[in-house]
Amino acid sequence: MPDSPSTDRQLSSEALFHRRLVTTACMFAMFMASVEGTIVATAMPTIVADLGGFRLFSWVFAAYLLSQAVSTPIYGRLSDVFGRKPIFFAGATLFLVSSLACGFAWGMVPLIVFRVLQGLGAGAVQPIGTTIVGDIYGPADRARMQGWLSSIWGISAVIGPLLGGFIVEHLHWSLIFLINLPIGIAAMVLLAVYFHERVESRRHTVDYFGALLLMIGLGAVMLIAGQFETLDQTVIIVVGGVGLLALAALVLQERRAAEPILSAQLWRNRVLAIGNGGALIIGALVMGVVAFLPTYVQGVMGRSATAAGFVIATQSVGWSVAGVLAAGVMVRRSYRAAGAIGGVLLLIGAAILIAMDPGRGPLWAGAGASMIGLGMGFAATTFLVSVQGSVGWGERGMATSTNLFLRTVGMSLGAGICGAIVNLGVFREVPEAGDIVSRLLLPGTRESLGPQEIARLTDAIAGSLHVVYLIIAAMALAVLLLSLALPAGQSPTRPARQG
Q: Which CATH number fits domain 266-499: 3.40.5.10, 1.20.1250.20, 1.20.5.320, 3.90.1170.50?
């Protein structure tokens, strides 16, 4: 497969039209995968009311995210070996069949099982769609298109809750899973007809044992990170031990594998190491905001869920806008410049959140969230495009999927670490908090609490979240430093300066 796609001037009008249709298919795929989380979250109270099993509530999300994360790097490597199209079709088919099964789930346990399968399919949909766009565009256009792809996440974050709420209120919750079918089928048809790739015909030795060890090791680590508070201590020790053994065996396996599932060579590449490290930090940073800023708005400020939704929406909009703007900065200036702008914006956003107090209101929180969103759009897009541009076709699938995978790992770690900080701070100040915190978050039940009780709880939550925002500031500084460590002058159209 050639690594230098033709520019727009070199393509015929028919070829340009076909490329746009392939890009549309990838956008459909990205939207399908990204909207899944927000639309399901909106419908979960209704699903639980219908199916029961409230104690398994969190596993509906954990099962999907965990299986998606551990399968992502494996699909990336397989796409480098066998080509993008067959691996995408395999993953998308599994995703759509599992979505159909989720819509007809008869209980919470079957729903969780189907969500595991759905996540395994989603592990191919997002990274390979992103990789295909990286393949079919030249360096300058690649930056622009990845910026547009990143905006899909912001769009889905706004559309998902609205669409989910409409479906639950006026139709039936099963449709939140079934609407994936026409979108996914349209993406597959467009790719089948218009996407043509040339895969090098040679004998391959796929590292299936390494893939198994990777899934076991990373699955164990992410399970503990995401469900630490709900797991028994014995389970944590056993699962953690199995995970560490699997990862240790993976290191040995990858050293002797002819075609390792995780190539150590990729980590020796400076740009890849920086881009992947940045993706990990960005994932943790965004969860520190998305998961806990609504708690501040509702619990500390005493505002409605609508106000909290507005605050998070500003971050999503900021990410969408900045993802597109970052492409222009990368092409005209450099990866370093675009990433540094992202790091500075993240620091500004963190500073606004650190200075936040209940009297400043949701607009202040929205200002901080929007700065964080702008910073994420610049930094995340820059790290991804720089990673894709630093490797050839035969490694781009692995490089892309690893970057997206590490962002997901960062999200799990960020949610676990920030959640532990909040819980520790709240229960240290108010040991009897328990379910009282839940009553504080809802305007109706908040009124049943006394003024002194509300003051103690809000002070405890505000103090804990202040620590979280300090950690977010530290992560923002790390993103800035990593961006400044990118090679001077390197951009999608210019190699790094020598010397």
A: 1.20.1250.20
Identify which of 38-42, 114-118, 220-224, 231-235 has the greatest average pLDDT: 114-118
Distance between CA 181 and CA 43 in Å, rounded?
A: 18
Site of tokens 């449709």: 175
* Highest mean pLDDT: which range of 59-73, 185-199, 291-305: 185-199
- Considering only CA atoms, which of 353, 381, 347, 348 is closest in space to residue 365? 353
Long-range CB contacts for residues 163-168, cutoff 8 Å, separation at least 24: 163/35, 163/39, 164/38, 164/39, 164/40, 164/41, 164/42, 164/43, 165/42, 167/39, 167/43, 168/42, 168/43, 168/46
d(CA 26, CA 129): 5
Q: Cα separation of 164 and 339, whole Å?
A: 34
Residue type, 215: M
pLDDT at 475: 94
Count Cα atoms within 13 angstroms, Cβ side, for 301.
Answer: 26
Spatial contact of 444 and 328, defined as CB atoms under 8 Å apart: no
Q: Which helix (H) or strand (E) holds 420?
A: helix 393-429
pTM for this model (two decimals): 0.78
Nearest to 56 by CA among 68, 70, 44, 71: 44
List Cα–Cα distances, 370 to 30, 283, 329, in angstroms: 22, 16, 19
As a whole number of angstroms, the distance between CA 446 and CA 91 comes to 45
**For residue 431, what pLDDT band results from cuts at 50, 70 and 90?**
low
The more confident residue out of 385 and 93 is 93
| 1-205 CATH choice from 3.90.1150.10, 3.40.120.10, 1.20.1250.20, 3.40.50.1360 | 1.20.1250.20
